[in-house]
Amino acid sequence: MKIFSWNVNGLRAVLSKGALQSFIEKYQPDILCLQETKARQGQAEVDLPEYEEIWNSAERAGYSGTAIFTKQKPLSVRFGFLPEQDAMPGWEDAFGDARTEGRVLTAEFEDFYLIDVYVPNEKHTLERMGYRENVWDKALLDYMKALEVTKPVIVCGDFNVAHEEIDLARPKENEGNAGFTKSGRQGMTNFLSNGFIDSWRELHPGEQKYSWWSYRGGARMRNIGWRIDYFLVSEKLREQIKNAEICDEVKGSDHCPIMLELA
Predict the structure, then answer these.
(1) What does the alpha-carbon distance between residue 38 and residue 35 come to, in Å, rounded to a whole number?
(2) How far apart are CA 162 and CA 170, in angstroms?
C-alpha cells in the first residue's frame, strides 16, 4: 500500500495547473492525504471516480483544510480531535481557533488509523509558539496515543517544523526562527520519544532532502529548503515500512509530496 501526503497550498491552484492530475496518473496512490486545500468539497472540480473523497474544510473560506482521497473505503472517519479534547480551554487565540480550521482528519482502516494533519505555524514573530507548544502539539500527541490503544497509528502532513539541523539547508541562520525553534523541535522529539517513528529518516538516516521551499529568491531551484512534512508511524508498524520517499521532482506547490509504502 502506497500512501502519499502533499500540502498543495490551494487545491484549485494545483488542479488548474494540471499538477494533481499528472501526479496521480504517474504515482497511483492508494491513499492521498492533502493539506492546505483552501476549498470546500464542490468548489474544486476533482474528477477521480476511483477514489472516495473525505473533506475537512475550514469555516473560513479559502483557508487551511485537509482532505483524504482513498481507493479503500474507511471503516470510520473523524473530523478534529476527540470531543473531550475539543472541550478543553485554550483553543482560541489572537489568530483564530484551530478547531474550526479543518486541520485534523482521521480515517480508520482495518490495520491502522490514518491521521492527516496541517499543523499551525509559529508565525514569523513567534507569536504562536506558545500555542503550538502548550495546546496543539500536546493535543496531537494525546490524540495519537489515545487511538493507538486500539490499533497502530500513521500520522502524516505538514508539521511546520524541521526537527534536526540535517532537515534544513541553512540551520545556523535559522536557529530560533519559526519552524526551527527549540520548543517546536521539542514537540517533534516528544512524538518520537513516545513510540512513533519518522519513517523517512528511519530509512534515510544521513540523507539531506527537503519537502518545502520558499517562493522567494529562487529557493527551490537552488534547493534551499526545509523538511517539514512527515509520516510518523507507530512502533508496531516498523517492520512493515517498505519504502519512504520525498518526491521533490513533483511541482505545483511550494511543498512536494511525500510517500510511505507499507508491506
Answers:
(1) 9
(2) 11
DSSP single-letter state for residue 253: S
Whole-number percent of the chain with pLDDT over 70: 100
185, 94 contact by CB (below 8 A):
no
CA distance linking residue 225 with residue 191, whole number of Å? 23
Distance CA 73, CA 15 (A): 24
For 112-146, the pLDDT digits (tens) are: 999 999 999 999 999 999 999 999 999 999 999 99
- Among candidate residues 118, 143, 210, 230, the one labeled active-site is 118
Q: Take residue 33 and report the three cell numbers written for it.
A: 492525504
Q: Which of 116, 137, 158, 198 is catalytic?
A: 158
Q: Are 237 and 154 in contact (CB under 8 A)?
A: yes
**Is 158 considered catalytic here?**
yes
Distance, CA of 219 to chain centre: 21
Q: 3.60.10.10, 3.30.720.210, 3.40.50.1220, 1.10.357.140: which CATH number matches 2-262? A: 3.60.10.10
Query: Rounded to an integer, what distance in angstroms lies between the CA atom of residue 180 and that of residue 174?
Result: 7
Residues 93 and 137: beta-carbon distance below 8 Å? no
Mark whether 86 is an active-site residue. Answer: no
Domain boundaries, the chain: 2-262
Q: Give 72-101 pLDDT, tens digit per residue.
A: 999 999 999 999 999 999 999 999 999 999
